[in-house]
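Lay summary. Proteins are chains of building blocks that fold into shapes, and those shapes determine what they do. In this project we predict the shape from the chain. Here is one chain we studied, written as its sequence of building blocks.
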Amino acid sequence: MIDRELLLKVARDFAEEKGRERATIVAGFLIGSVARSEPPLGDSTDLDICLIDNDPPLNYERFQRVSDTILIDCWYNHPNVYQDKPYLRGHALLGPSLYDAVPLYDPRHMFDLIQASVRGQFDVPENVYARARQAYRQAREHFDAIERYRAVPVPVPLDRDELHHLHAIFEWASTAILMITFRSHTNRRQMMQFEAAASELERSDLYARAMEGLGFTEIVDDEIATMREQWHDIYNASNRFHSGLWDEGADLHPTREYYYLRGFEALAEAGHAQNSLLLLENILGACANHILNYAPPEDAVTYLEMYTSWLAQTRKGSTEDFAERVSIAGELLEQIDDVLIAWARTEGVAI
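And here is the predicted shape, written in a compact code that computers can read:
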């Protein structure tokens, strides 16, 4: 087990060093699983560090490998991002992240004031509902982008954008449920959290419907082990063929390989292999797109065939299959809308 105090020291030292390097940095804070005191998944963790900078750099190295098991993921935001406090409290990602965040570098007490304003009335039902609704709206926007494919044939193999929109529907829809059960949106644990949240609400059918909509229901653990190997091959290929800056496709950066892989393996070891498939497939689609953009055509063919075969396995390989996935996504959104309305009425929130 990685010691949390050691992780906090690494994060604090990093933020303070950046503060000495850049006079425009006014604060730095840690979010994510380490900030929430969650145990590392698969003896690997990342330190999600945000630096508030009056003049954020345009080009910088976002990822830094500390060791085989510790990865720093650092980005910059301008102070203007944090000016609208009601917006922050009602945002499904920013609100919970700021609520749980750990200050790392705060010489002017700017972050203290931001966090205090977010924590004020954070758990009142109106703000909880606002965060759930914000996540639901995000899911709806992604659904609207591909709704036409219920009737119009989608080009196959799927373009990265279509696959991303489908994934995002289920990621944001599940986040809406996480909000009303007082759980945070997460990365590798997202679907496992959603399963637990749906069970708590006695609506396990929502989770089952989501897995059906993603095409994962009938995929068994032995198949998933093989799929992880395929994923690893395609992930490595996307890195091998990459050239230039990582301003696009930062999530595919080679430093993240172990973080992803150990997380997927740990979920499988805990009996949650199916819950790793959404992130596996999401990254896989980005890798395939990366290979298409960077690899010579003769080298790309093998990996694109693997990608096409994967989509067929998860019932996204034909226009008919994808139309069914989109239809189920729409039905799930209607069910979640009903759950949110019922929750609001029970809590006395004006709709």
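What the prediction tells us: The chain has two domains: 4-119, 125-333.
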